[in-house]
Amino acid sequence: MSRYDRLAHTPAVRRLQQEMGSAAAADRRRHAPGGDRPDPLTDTEAAFVRSLDGFLFATVNEDGWPYIQFRGGPPGFVHVLDAHTLGYLDVRGNRQYLTTGNLRGGDGRVALFFLDHARQARLKVFGRATAVPAAQDPALAERLGTPRTEGRVEQLVTVRVEAHAWNCPNHITPRFTERELADALNPVRDRLALLERENARLRAELAARTDPSKD
Questions:
Q1: How far, rounded to the nearest angstrom, does the alpha carbon of residue 27 sit from its chain's CA centroid?
Q2: Would you state the pLDDT for residue 33?
Q3: Coil, strand or helix: which one is 134?
Q4: Are residues 186 and 121 in the same domain?
Q5: Highest taxon of the source (predicted)?
Q6: 39-87 pLDDT, tens per residue?
Q7: Are 42 and 70 part of one and the same domain?
């Protein structure tokens, strides 16, 4: 069984799979490569994470309630520090500090959800996160500084990856950012401008040929 499935398929989940008739399919996944060691991030996962401008970050508070926060920035603001570690600079927001409080009040277990609507792809990550003041590690702060989200930097967040899995792309609605649309439409705009210039030239030639004053 993959490392991700070992963590996700708890006894309660297994019982429900039996109840709902999906245990056989889940059992087939038990033959997937994996083990008790943390999953390394391959070049594929690293490139995917670096390409995105945001992700969902889930923690659990001391009372057992889950909390999900969106973290956004320019593509590449989440850095792949090595095959097992992600990191980013956390900038000041609404100053509720719910995620940070959950990390400090628990054992740091988190779930990250990286979703790309345009490519209809998503990557799930289990890990253990820490958040420390930026002044505590200037070298890491500098490493995480390009690119980064605009705003006042408060913390350095690192996530030690335990496991990851690519999720089924079904039901991901294709959506595109302004940047993605601009990249796709720029060649069309260039072609349209060329055609407009050519059209103007031909109109001018036609007008000159049909102008009676030219006879």
A1: 29
A2: 58
A3: helix
A4: no
A5: Bacteria
A6: 999 999 999 999 999 999 999 999 999 999 999 999 999 999 999 999 9
A7: yes
